Amino acid sequence: MLRWWRHWPTWAGYAAAVWSAVYGALGVFWALGGGGFPFAPVAGDRASGSILEGSRAGVVAPVMAVAGLVGAVVAVAMARGWGRGRARTVMLVFGWTMAATLALAIPDYTLLMLVAFAPLLLVFAFTGVPGPQDGIGDILYWHRVNLIILFLGGLLWALAALAYHRPRWTTPEAARRWGRWAVYVACAAPVPYEITRIAWYFGVPLGIPEDFLLMMRQTPGMLEVGLGGAIGSIGGCVLTHGLVSRWGEVYPRWVWFRAGERVPPALAVVPASVVAVVLVPAGLMNVRLGVDPASWGVNVPGMLWTVWGLALGVAAWAYALRRGWRSVTTVPRMSQVGPSA
């Protein structure tokens, strides 16, 4: 793994501070009437599924400005290890609230789409996007790009909060127990999605009307995308089992070029964590859409992505604890830093 990543506790708070300051400054700009407000009402083909989509800059932008600029100060304080007692608790609550809001509550399915179809998007960047779209900009337009920026800010805040106060109540033995249950939940949650999409591909209108299935059949590639998602989900479940299996810690014999060597923890933790955090906002977006009894198969399985993402995140965290990631040096408190020798 890159050497800089091994020292994330030392830079996470400062990175969150820089991100917050920049986005807070943008909030000031938009509050004063600047253009490009990323949640302004736009045409449907340029809108996102965020909970803030269609909001007014005069209402939301000032909140962004205050949260960003205050967040920059708090993040620096966390990076420096300042705060005791109640002040420390307040900063932790603020940090985790920022992380959850930016990474989980505000985004939509854009991040899941980006992760799932990243190879295709790379190809489309050179070959053009098939269908009525004029180019990659018709897929990754500003309202969606902004959600990616917010998501990255949420990740930085989560890292800053972890570096400021990393859990000490866990042990590798305990993490193995609750991590195994998290793996079971993470593998069970997407089963309804997998079953419905495979059923649709083979002509069974499970959870949808017949005419909806006919429409998908007449749309080139639509059923294939669903089938691909189901197969990818099943493959992800197999890999998830590696978080509690021996082959997830030591390369098995079928990985002949690395057989017997230890698997770097980051190789499992980073991808699992990324998938976990992009699943949650996509699941919440499905929850906000509600349920139509006649077509429950469209988004009810997607609602369980929230459970899937949370369970996968817990499983990845348990794996990290078992593999010794909690021993990474934490940020020293300023009161503990003495003069150099």
In brief:
The chain has helices at 3-6, 8-31, 57-79, 85-105, 110-116, 118-127, 142-164, 172-188, 191-201, 210-218, 222-241, 265-289, 296-303, 305-322. By secondary structure, it is mainly alpha-helical. It comes from Herbidospora solisilvae.
If you had to describe this structure to a student in words, what would you say it looks like?
There is one protein chain. With 341 residues, the chain is an all-alpha fold. The protein has two domains: 160 residues, no CATH class; 155 residues, no CATH class. Helix content is 65%, strand content 0%. It is built from 14 helices and no strands. The radius of gyration is 22 Å and the shape is globular. The two termini are 31 Å apart. This is NYN domain-containing protein. Keywords: Membrane, Transmembrane, Transmembrane helix.
Shape: globular
Strand content: under 5%
Tally the helices.
Answer: 14
Helical residues, percent = 55-70%
Unreliable sequence segments: 326-341
Number of individual domains: 2
**Rg on CA atoms, Å:** 22 Å
Q: Main sheet?
A: none
Overall average pLDDT:
86
SSE run: HHHHHHHHHHHHHH
SS-derived structural category: mainly alpha
Amino-to-carboxy terminus distance: 31 Å
Q: Please count the beta strands (DSSP E, at least 2 residues each).
A: 0
Organism: Herbidospora solisilvae
Transmembrane segments: 12-37, 57-77, 89-106, 141-164, 225-244, 265-284, 304-321
Keywords: Membrane, Transmembrane, Transmembrane helix
Protein name: NYN domain-containing protein
